Amino acid sequence: MAFVAAICTQCGAQIEMDNTCEIGICKHCGTTFVVDKAANELEQLIRMAEGLQQLGEYENALEKYQKITEKYPQDVRGWLGCVQNYSDGAFRKEPGGWDAEWLDKEPFSVWYQKAYLLAMMTPD
Ligand SMILES: [Zn+2]
């Protein structure tokens, strides 16, 4: 079994992760670590979507962000990504640019509202 190096949060010793990176055991203090797979997947999806957005591939990024909102509707970044990429994409496609009517139209109005509500709930 292949191992990936990681550091124990309890004692600072090196711990060994199994090759699925789901479980690790510290040989020094015996602490067992279970990696939150769901959180990992979410971060991976966010990174992919952000990458596409940086490349200017707004439609592909929007698709990814929509998948994120379906799977992780509690994460504000998914909704924000939809809002940003939809408006960024449309800005470049239509010479008219920003249209205030978007705020009242679906799906933009739904994304905007969810992002707003979640942002209001976030403590920081
Ligand atoms: Zn340890």
List keywords for this structure.
single chain, 124 residues, alpha+beta, Serine Threonine Protein Phosphatase 5, Tetratricopeptide repeat, 2 domains, 4-stranded antiparallel β-sheet, binds zinc ion
What does this structure look like?
The radius of gyration is 20 Å and the shape is elongated. The chain has two domains: 4-34, no CATH class; 37-121, Serine Threonine Protein Phosphatase 5, Tetratricopeptide repeat. The protein has four helices and four strands. Helices cover 52% and strands 12% of the residues. A four-stranded antiparallel β-sheet has the order 1-2-3-4, with no helix packed on it. With 124 residues, it is an alpha+beta fold. It starts with a strand and ends with a helix. The chain has helices at residues 37-54, 58-71, 76-93, 108-121, and strands at residues 4-7, 14-17, 23-26, 32-34. The structure holds zinc ion. Zinc ion is lined by residues 8, 10-11, 13, 26, 28-29, 31.
Count the DSSP helices. 4
Order of helices and strands: EEEEHHHH
Shape: elongated
Helix content: 40-55%
CATH architecture assignment name of the largest domain = Alpha Horseshoe
Please report which band the strand proportion falls in: under 5%, 5-15%, 15-25%, 25-35%, 35-45% or over 45%: 5-15%
CATH fold-type name of the largest domain = Serine Threonine Protein Phosphatase 5, Tetratricopeptide repeat
Q: Give start-end ranges of low-pLDDT stretches.
A: none
Structural class comes to alpha+beta
pLDDT averaged over residues: 83
Strand order of the largest sheet: 1-2-3-4
Spatial extent as radius of gyration: 20 Å
